[in-house]
Structures are given as C-alpha cells and as structure tokens.
Amino acid sequence: MFSDLCDDGGEAVQANQFLIVDGEAGAIIDPGGNLAYNDLYMALVRHCPARQLSAIIASHADPDIIASLDRWTTATSAPIYISTVWERFIPHFCKPGKTGGRIIGIPDEGMRIRIGRSELIALPAHFLHAEGNFQFYDPISRILFSGDLGVSIVSGREAAQPVRSLAHQLPFMERFHRRYMVSNKVLRLWADMVSTLQIDMIVPQHGAPLVGPAIGEFIEWVRHLPCGIDLMGPEQYRLPP
To answer: Where is the signal peptide (predicted)?
Structure first.
C-alpha cells in the first residue's frame, strides 16, 4: 500500500495505491492519477519489475483511480480490468489506440483474476459509489480492497496507520459515506455478501485500513446507515435563488 504519493499541498484528495505480488507476477489495484505515477512507478519496481505486471485493476473509472492509464499502458503490457460499464470510457484517458485489445471487462456478477499462482476475486459493489463498481478480495492475505467504501478523509501519514476501533474514525468517515454511497439498500446487500468472507483487513482507496474489531463494527455501521437517495427530498431539487 502506498498512501502518501499524492502530496500536492492539499489540493487533491489523498489516495492509496496497491501492489499485489505472487511469485514473479504482480498487479496494481487503483493506480491513481498523474500525481502518483512517478513515485508509484519508482516504488513498484523495487518489488516487481513493470514487465512482470500481469494486471492493472480499477475499481471504477474516477480520475483518482485510473487517470494515469496512458503512462501505464506505455510502461507495461499488462491487461486492464474494469467494469464492463466503463470499458468504452477509459480509452479517453489515453492516446488513440493505446488500449486496443488490452481492456478486459469485468461482468456485473464479478470474476476471478489470476495473479501468479493465486487469484483476486472481483466482488460486485455496484453503486458503492459508482454505477459499475468492484471491490477485490485477496484470499491469501484475506484483505478486502474496498474502493470508496470504508473511506476516511485523513492525511497520507494517518492513512498508513491501521484503525482498530471504528468510533475514533467515524468523524472522518460519516459525511463522505452519507454523500457518496447511493442507498442503504445496497449497503445492506453488501454487508450480507461480505459477512460470508474471512476478512483480516478492509483497505479503502482513501484513508486508513480497518483491522480487528473495526471490521465488524464497520459492516454493522453501514448496514444501518441512511445515505445518498435516502436523504434526498424536494429541498435538494429546486431552482437556486
């Protein structure tokens, strides 16, 4: 996990990038935008040469997730995994022709992505927050890479410190989740799904990982959280003064 590569004086949101290595194969999850590219590339090659990357994986298509794609398509020949919803949108991040034959659409029901001798499991997380959205579960480390679910708005230094108690972190999480998650219905569906997994860590794309008791506390918190369209009414849909 790289948590402090987007330090531009606070103008851009903090974002985490992830490298998975199994044997001689590697994968990047949510490689980020151009702010992170140079430092991420230099950090990555200390663990896995770029030519050994077997996947570039995106939870969705926001700029802080995948805006550096043009540079990664030059640096590596790895295929790009993203929801079928976004397959024809992400070429807009690249020069013409650079994504040709390299995009593998993840179907709505998810899929298993081979990394070396193991795999990552793409879990459906639609509307949490994007229309086509996936999380990635690593059955070896039992880490759930949760994208924008579980986010806390903190500094890169604070993001590097795992959180064991949700109560301390809620002031940095609640406003984001009420705005960026679409509805409590999908949060309940997500909670039911992940409750069947063995999870040792939930790692969001922004902010600190959740470990120990904070994992179960978070799942139960979102299960009962009104958010998104639950909070919308006529006062949010009227002409400005």
So the answer is: none
Alpha helices in the chain (DSSP H): 34-44, 63-66, 69-75, 156-159, 166-169, 174-180, 184-194, 213-223
Q: Cα(165)–Cα(174) distance, rounded to whole angstroms?
A: 14
- The conformation of residue 2, written as its DSSP 8-state character, comes to B
For the segment 164-223, what is each residue's pLDDT rounded down to a tens digit?
999 999 999 999 999 999 999 999 999 999 999 999 999 999 999 999 999 999 999 999
Domains of the chain: 18-231 (3.60.15.10)
pLDDT for 40 beyond 80: yes
Distance set, CA 74 to CA 28, 176, 234 (Å): 15, 34, 48
Q: How many residues does the chain have?
A: 241
